[in-house]
Amino acid sequence: MHATLPRLEATDFPAIRRKRLDALQVNLGYQCNQTCLHCHVNAGPTRTETMSRETISDVIAFLKASRVKTLDLTGGAPELNAHFRGLVLAARNLGVNVMDRCNLTILEQPGQEDLAQFLAANTVEIVASLPCYLEENVDAQRGKGVFEASIRALRTLNALGYGRTGSELALNLVYNPQGASLPPEQGKLEHDFHRHLRERYGIVFNQLYVLTNMPIQRFGSMLISKGRLEEYMDLLKNAYEPANLESVMCRSLLSVDWRGYVYDCDFNQMLGLPLRLNGMPRVHLRQLTSEDLDGNPIVVKDHCYGCTAGQGSSCGGALT
């Protein structure tokens, strides 16, 4: 796989600083039951990296000591971590909102038969990947049969109350473009998703989050192989909107890798660009308090244009 960081190092992206920390995004490991083309984590079934019980304890200690309101669990498939459920229970007992970035097909994996019921019982917000409402597009990006399995999973979640009007069980979907293009306008696409999934499959959900594909890891390597990285970067830079700088996720979110080291965002984590603090080469979560971060400079490279292009892009979808 081609290394993308050397092609992103030289940048004119503006300097920005952090605000008060609101969300802790924790990568529980890179093992996944899928191998998706757009995956910026390069996750898959053969990956063995996983967060240990000791590091899970560090996460819980940080939640207790900080004012973090949201614990955002990601991977790989975060549910494959042996300590996933214990962490969810600990965070919910602290009154922290928990988000599970779920690929949907994990609900059908052996040993996960009661996962949907566990998530519902603990009021876990589900952010589910579904890059299109058309079967051929989803299977082309994520693997044959993934769309049908995703529809079955969504029906299971709906049956538990997820995504339904008046329910406290939030079900949000995530859309990624099929290739080297900016995503369409979020509001219009969300309307199309609602209509198509309801009319054809009887599925309901709360919101659609539209994300820009980042030119790193598996997707970035594909662009380099096809000689299209510079073309894609030009697209992102030409669509740059300065107003998006105010709301980019790195201002209020902290990313934690499976070993417990911290980064300004998940994309920096995947590029090996650690949080800079007090001259330390890298910072572990146990060395940190949330107050340390207010006003701290954010590490930026050329990939940051992906979050500020057009309507903007973050873990919560479009910014404008």
Would you spell out the secondary-structure blueprint of this structure?
Elements: H1 5-8, E1 23-27, H2 53-65, E2 70-74, H3 84-93, E3 97-102, H4 115-121, E4 125-129, H5 135-142, H6 146-159, E5 171-175, H7 186-201, E6 208-210, H8 217-225, H9 229-238, E7 253-256, E8 262-263, H10 266-271, H11 305-308
Parallel strand pairs: 1-2, 1-7, 2-3, 3-4, 4-5, 5-6
Antiparallel strand pairs: 7-8
Task: Write a brief structural summary.
With 320 residues, this protein is α/β, with parallel strands linked by helices.
Considering the chains and any ligands shown, give keywords for the structure.
11 helices; eight-stranded mixed β-sheet; single chain; 320 residues; 11% strand; globular; alpha/beta; TIM Barrel
Describe this structure in words.
With 320 residues, this protein is of the alpha/beta class. It has one domain: Alpha-Beta Barrel (TIM Barrel). The chain contains 11 helices and 8 strands. The protein has helices at residues 5-8, 53-65, 84-93, 115-121, 135-142, 146-159, 186-201, 217-225, 229-238, 266-271, 305-308; strands spanning 23-27, 70-74, 97-102, 125-129, 171-175, 208-210, 253-256, 262-263. It has an 8-stranded mixed beta sheet with strand order 6-5-4-3-2-1-7-8. Helix 3 links the parallel strand 2 (70-74) and strand 3 (97-102). It is globular, with a radius of gyration of 19 Å. The chain starts with a helix and ends in a 12-residue tail after the last helix. The mean pLDDT is 91.
